[in-house]
């Protein structure tokens, strides 16, 4: 009887056959993040601020269209102020949409168009303030310009910080490389540029609460 049962299932008793490999259990630890990722959790704050600023600008232009048009009349005359304002707000709406897409897809580089666009706009108005002798407008536009420059610098530093952190996470999850592991491995992060190192150093020196 024992021989018959053994003969009925030869795969269980033949020593020359390899046992089937075990598959890893589902729901295990997720794979480590890719090295060189530049999205930091604080980029959410940067993106939300940009979206809030853009939406506020669009809403105020819709509610106070006449006042905004008069402001542009003082700079460009009454000829094409309305067209310029409409064009500027259309561009601003596109920048807000790109920023929202950057938040959803975790692409911090998609914040750059909005930051650069508003920086360029305030720089143009600052130059016009100098030409027209508007001291109050010059101070206001330079303050906004400086704020967006700082925000761009912070976003750049966060990207460098995330890049360093993602590379360290990959190396920690992969363990030591065979033979001691030299530079240039798969989990090794890309080298930071001097500007990234400066931004990261300045960001790390900010007071933490």
UniProtKB/TrEMBL annotation:
Region Disordered: start-end pairs: 1-36, 173-194
Keywords of the record: Membrane, Transmembrane, Transmembrane helix
Organism taxonomic ancestry: Bacteria, Bacillati, Actinomycetota, Actinomycetes, Streptosporangiales
Top-level division of the source organism's lineage: Bacteria
Basic and acidic residues biased stretches: 13-25
Parts of the chain that traverse the membrane: 42-65, 86-104, 110-131, 138-158
Name listed for the protein in its UniProt record: Uncharacterized protein
Originating species: Actinomadura violacea
